[in-house]
Amino acid sequence: TNTHSEDRTLTQGVLKTLASKLDDLSTCNELIGKHGAALQRSLSELEDLRGSTDSTDKVKAVNERATLFRITSNAMINACRDFVDVAESHSRRWQKALQHEREQRHHLEETIEQLAKQHNSLERAWRENPTSYTGETLSNDEAEFFDAMEDSPAFITVTATGNIAHNYFCECANHMQLRRTRRSRIPDKPNYSLNLWSIMKNCIGKDLSKIPMPVNFNEPLSMLQRLTEDLEYSELLDRAARCDSSLEQMCLVAAFSVSSYSTTVHRTAKPFNPLLGETYELDRLDEYGYRSICEQVSHHPPAAAHHVTSQRGWTLWQHITIDSKFRGKYISVVPLGNIHLQFHSSGNHYVWSKVTSTVHNIIVGKLWIDQSGDIDIVNTTTKDTCRLKFSPYSYFSREVPRKVTGVVEDREGTAHYILSGTWDDKMESAKIVDSSQGCGGSEGKQKTVYQTLPPKLLWKKYPLPENAENMHFFSSLALTLNEPEEGVAPTDSRLRPDQRLMEAGLWDEANSQKQRLEERQRLERKRRAQHRSSSCSELYFAGYQPLWFEKRTDETGDNIFIYKGGYWEAKERQDWSQCPQIF
Asked: Which domain holds residue 502?
C-alpha cells in the first residue's frame, strides 16, 4: 500500500511538473508571436524609410527587437528540451512499472491455476473415498460463473482434470495410425534485407493483388496451399461427425474455425498469388481420411474455390475472394465469402466466414499480425448459432492477447455453452447449467451471469517444429504442403517454378521466374479479352471457365463455385489433357 501511495504521489508530482512546463511553452509561444509581429512591423517601417535620416534609429530598433525575438526563441527551445527530458525520464519509469504489473499479473494467473488444480485433486480424492461419496453433481458453490457476452467479459478458464467434469462431450481420443513419412524440414530462409516501405509507400489505398511484389515478401506457399492449411486440425471435424448433440458439434466446429488462425501468429509474409487456373491437391486419405482440391477461378479479383471430402463423415467447401489493401501503417486482408461444412450422418450444414487479418508496423518496427472481428457460425439445419468475438490487440488492454470468446445458442436463443481461449493457442468450452441477471454493466446494460461446469479443452495448438524460425515459421503440415508429389495435375502449385526456387533459397532466380509467369499471364488475359470482343461471347471472366469447379446456387442461396467432379478420376487415369499450360 505504501508503495502504491508513493507511486501515486510521484505520478501526481510529475504531472504537475509537465503541466508547469506546458504553461512555460504557452507563455514562450505568446512572446514569440508578439515579438515576431513587432519585428515584422519594424522591417516594414525600415523598408518605407530607406534613404531617410531616421533610418539609423529604425535599424537600431529592428536590432533590439531581433535580439528579443532570438532570446524568446532560445527560451522556447530550452522549455521544449526540459519538457522532453522530463517526459522521457519518467516514461522509462512508467514502462518499467507497466512491465512489472504485467509480470505480477502473469504470476498471479499461474498461482490461481495451480491452486485450482490442487483444489481439483483434493476434491477428486474426496470423491474417490467410498465412505463419503454422495454423487457427482456439482453444487452451486462448486460451479464456475461467466458473464454474458454483450460486455465482452474476461474469462478465467482452468482445464478440468480427473473426473470432476461431466463427460458432456463426445469421445475425443485420437487413434495413432501408420503414416507415410513426409519431410520435416525445408532449406533455411536466406537472410536477405529489403525495405518494405520503399515498395509499399506507393501502394496506399490500392488493391495489393494488382501490385507486383518481389518474392522477398513471400513465403514459399501459394494462397491455395494456405487455404488447404486450414485442415491442419481436421480431427476436430472427425470428432464433431461422431457427436449426437448438434450443440456439442457446434462447439467443435467453432474450435475448428478458430484453429485455422493458429499458424498465422508468426507468418507475416504473404503467400504467392495463384495464377488463373492454378490448382492444388492434398490427398491424405491414408493418414487423415480426407482429400482436398483447390482451383484459382479468378485472378482480378483473386478468388479460389476449395472442396474437401472426408471418409470420416464430413464435406467442406468454400469460395473465397481476398480483398487486401495497404492503409499507410498496416495492411488489411479481408476474406470475402462463406465456408460451408456438412456432416453426412446428421445432414447438419454449417456456414461461417473469416475475420479480418491485419499486418502492422509496415513503416517501422517488427511486423506482427492480428485477427479481429466476429465469426457468426450458423447451423442452417437446426438453426443453432455461435458468435465468436476476436478481440483486437491493444497495448493498454488488460485482456489476454489474441483472445477469442463466444456463446453457443439454440434456435430459441437459449445459451448452452461458453467458449473461450486464444486463436494462437487453445479453445475451451464450459457447459451452462444456470443463468441469472447480475448487476448493471456498461451503458446501463444488465449483465447475465452464467453458471457453468468446469471448462473442457476442445483444441490445443501443436508445437512448431524444431528450427521453425528459420523455415518461415511453418507448422508440421505446412512443411509438407510443397513437397514434390507424383501424379499431380500439371497446374499444381508444387510445380510452380518461382515458388520452388524461392523454397530452395534462390531468390534472384525466383524473381526472374515470377516476372516471366506474370508477363505470360498478362498476355493470356489480353488474348482472351480480344477473343471475347471478336466473338461477342459472354463467358465468365473474359472467356475463362474453371476446369474443376462451376458456378451454382447452393442450398443456402449462395451463388458460388462448387466442385463439379472429375479431378480424382482424371488423376486415376493420369489424363491431364484438359489442363492449360500455365507454368
From this structure: 186-439+446-520
